[in-house]
Every structure is written in C-alpha cells, then in structure tokens.
Write a structure and sequence with these properties.
230 residues; alpha/beta; UDP N-Acetylglucosamine Acyltransferase, domain 1; 2 domains; 7-stranded mixed sheet; 5-stranded parallel sheet; 38% helix
C-alpha cells in the first residue's frame, strides 16, 4: 500500500469517527465543529497515526506521540491498542486504554473510563470490547475480559468478569441487571436483591422519621407519646 493509499484510508477513518460523533452526540451541530473541538476525535486520529508507526516497527516515536496526545486531550491510549472505526470517546478527559485492549466498531466511551490490565505478563491483559458497546463515565474494566456486542456498562461500574452480549452492568463489583433483546427492542430487567434491600431500608428509614416527627409533636402538645412497634 502506497503512502497515498494510507492517507486516503486515514481520511476515511477520521470521517467515520466524525460522522459517528454527529450521530451519537445531540450537542454536535456540524462535522466541522466535531473535527475542530472534540478532543475524543483528536485523540483517536493521533492514536491511529501512532498505531501505524508502531505496526511499522518505529521505536519510541509512537509512545512519544501517545504522550503528546495525553497532554493535548487528557486521553491516554497505548499505541498498541486496537480500536476499530467508527468510535466515539465522549468528552474524554481521564480515559485510559491499555496496550492490549481491543475495541470493536461503533463503541462509545465516556470520560474517566478505564480499560486497564490485571497482569504484569506480556500477554492479553486488557479488556476486549465487541461492537456497539457503551461504557459509562468513570467505569473501570479490568483484565483480559470480554465485553459482548451491544453491552452497556454503567457509570462508575467496576467490571472484572466477562459480560455477555446486550447485557447492562452496574455497580461495584459490576453485576448484570438487564438484557436487551435486539430482535424486538425489549429490555428484560433481572431481579436485583441488593437494590431491593436498599430500597426496603430507605422505606423503613422514612417510616421511622415520620414516626419520630409524630412523637415530637405529641410531646410538644402534652399528649402521651407512644412509638409504633410496626
């Protein structure tokens, strides 16, 4: 492939990333705006240059370029990370994508998300995301785990195990709370005992606070004060 072919392929990739940002971000008003002011688009474009240099066997320069990208955008992507096009890194500040991470097409990553490693061995040690994965703000995906196509990772979740396709994961540690069926656009919500128990405790606290207010009102009025045992 000639240099001209490489430049054409790079241009098509950047155009795809810009168009994807327009589709996914309702705040985007034009392709020119996305190209000029979206740090996620800048970081991806620079990463694709660094990745090409890395594949070509160029030493040091790819890492220098990735560090320049980090300084410029607040987004850190190792040159060896594999990111398909299109991709959107939304807002982007604090995003970290490790060396052996693999990201499928049409993935959407929010600010502060981390695709980190859990091993010091020179093997696959970072997450592998299928197509159409959404990663919420501040989520941490750690280790050589697989995130299935269409999965959604909630903001702040910590995920250390494989996630099946079209699942929604929330919490610390991350657990599945719903499945999306792409065949008929329905969402199956799973039982969440932890959430249910917290909701019960909140209801009990509200009831106790109401009982305490009644107790204080009776005491202030001189009436006999009794507390319900229910």
């Amino acid at each position: 492939m000639s240099l001209l072919d490489d430049l054409r392929a790079f241009t098509r990739t950047v155009q795809a990333d810009v168009q994807f940002a327009l589709e996914r971000d309702p705040a985007a008003t034009s392709a020119l705006e996305v190209l000029l002011v979206y740090p996620g688009v800048h970081a991806l474009a620079l990463h694709r240059v660094a990745a090409a240099l890395q594949r070509a066997g160029v030493s040091l320069l790819p890492r220098m370029l990735s560090q320049f990208t980090r300084w410029l955008t607040g987004i850190e992507i190792h040159p060896s990370a594999q990111i398909a096009s299109p991709c959107l890194i939304d807002h982007g500040m604090g995003v970290v994508i490790g060396e052996t991470a693999k990201i499928g097409a049409r993935c959407h990553l929010h600010q502060g998300s981390t695709l980190g490693g859990a091993s010091r061995l020179r093997t696959q040690r970072h997450p592998m995301l299928g197509d159409d994965v959404l990663v919420g703000a501040g989520a941490s995906l750690i280790g050589a785990i697989s995130i299935g196509k269409g999965a959604k990772i909630g903001a702040g979740a910590v995920v250390v195990a494989n996630v099946p396709p079209y699942a929604t994961v929330v919490g610390v540690p991350g657990h599945i709370v719903a499945y999306y069926d792409p065949g008929d656009d329905t969402v199956l919500r799973l039982p969440d005992p932890e959430h249910d128990r917290i909701e019960q405790l909140e209801q009990r606290v509200d009831a106790l606070q109401a009982e305490l207010r009644r107790f204080e009102e009776r005491a202030a009025g001189g009436a006999p004060a009794t507390i319900s045992r229910s």
